[in-house]
Amino acid sequence: MTVTERFDLSAPTVSLEDLGRVHVTNVGGAGMSAVARVLLGRGVAVSGSDPKDLPVLAALREQGADVHAGAQPDTVDRADTVVVSSATRESDPELVRARQLGTRVLHRSQALASAAEGRRVVAVAGANGKTTTTSMLTALLLEAGADPSFAIGGELARYGTNARAGSGEAFVIEADESDGSFLVYHPEVAIVTNVQPDHLDHYGTFEAVQDAYLAFARSIRPGGLLVACADDEGSARLARRAQAEGVRVLTYGTSATADVRVVGHVVDGFRTVARIVDEGQDRELSVAIPGAHNVLNATAAYAAAHHGLGVDASRAAAGLAAYTGTRRRFELKGEAGGVTVVDDYAHNPGKVAAVVGTAAALQERPHRLVVVFQPHLYSRTADFAQELGAALLPADVVVVMDVYAAREDPVPGVTGELVADAARRCAEAEPGPACEVHYEASWDAVAPLVASLVRPGDLVLTVGAGDVTALGPQVLAILEGAAAS
Fold this sequence. Notes:
Blueprint: H1 3-6, E1 22-24, H2 30-41, E2 46-50, H3 55-63, E3 66-69, H4 73-76, E4 81-84, H5 93-101, E5 104-107, H6 108-115, E6 120-125, H7 130-143, E7 149-156, E8 161-164, E9 170-174, E10 189-192, H8 200-203, H9 206-218, E11 225-229, H10 233-244, E12 249-253, E13 260-268, E14 271-278, E15 281-287, H11 292-309, H12 313-321, E16 331-336, E17 339-344, H13 349-362, E18 369-373, H14 378-391, E19 397-400, H15 417-429, E20 436-439, H16 443-453, E21 459-463, H17 471-484
Parallel strand pairs: 1-2, 1-4, 2-3, 4-5, 6-9, 6-10, 7-9, 10-11, 11-12, 12-13, 17-21, 18-19, 18-21, 19-20
Antiparallel strand pairs: 7-8, 13-14, 14-15, 16-17
């Protein structure tokens, strides 16, 4: 059952005051905690539960939420609205109770749309880069004194949160295209970083993915703005189609046809300084994160702020310079025994290729890049094993873990070894020294394996949307212990 079969995403947005008391299922997740935080900030009474007693539950309690570890169906009895995600199964006991009572059930995107009532919505979508772009735009607006509301799929490092209800006019939302729910926001400004064949478990074909993005562009409010990347073929095509239908479009990128054009950049450690040309003026954009792909993300944030929301160009550039990163987006975890460990959420081929390429560019021989990759979802692994394997190739050493299931049930024959085998084939086909590829199915064995493979000067990059993020500290602890002995 797809999310569009379970929810009427074309239904009118429920007004904030009509939501009543809201119960949020799986409230510890990044997307669901963001909904809870924003609703609380707008004065809505919120309850919720999560299977695990995560630290975010304590933070939500401090903000006034009645949240618990473990499902509590009786809490639903006191709710006027229950909020779920597309990953919430119909067998979830709290959802079952809501269905029995006839309580209003909303998808998380619909609840966010209610929370955004009366605000100037900026919705950021794309297969790659949307969390970073949303974070950069939010940090820019915060630094510019606009005090925006925001809901992001990652935590802003400087502010220690993924969501907040601000007092300003703008509401910045990371819009999830994976289930079609990005169509509910009807933004004033929409950013599309790229359009690529992802989430085929939901859409079926790339053509359907492209049609969904066109529907997203059509959902922009009259007089609004679509900010689209000219360097990505799918996004550029979307821009042309939307413009032909009368949508106001602004493009950005290194392309000579881009309205806001990137003409160069320099990476200085973990900071990138880019030069752009906008409205005939040369400007400098500086962000505390490396990579050409992040130059594009920063340019998108600048373009949306300046051309979409009217922020002064100089203040927009200065705001970007204050951005200090997002959790799990090339996040430095530490150093031990001369080995640096960085963590990143990348999980589809485009994201993985971008982050591995960026990390490889930071390393100078004879120092090596060691990548630990955890495939995310059986469906994505089956669809893109070859592309994922190829994306890992800039590394000197690759350790592939087994698949992180997330919302899916296991699929016979689909394991992380598909990606490892693809990486080996790609490495053998390349001239020069072949990338060393390992497959380790046991989660507990990965950190000791990585610690045994590294040497001083190496950069270890843990990559994936699952619990691979916990491995970095384990590797560092092993290396620290070895150095102390």
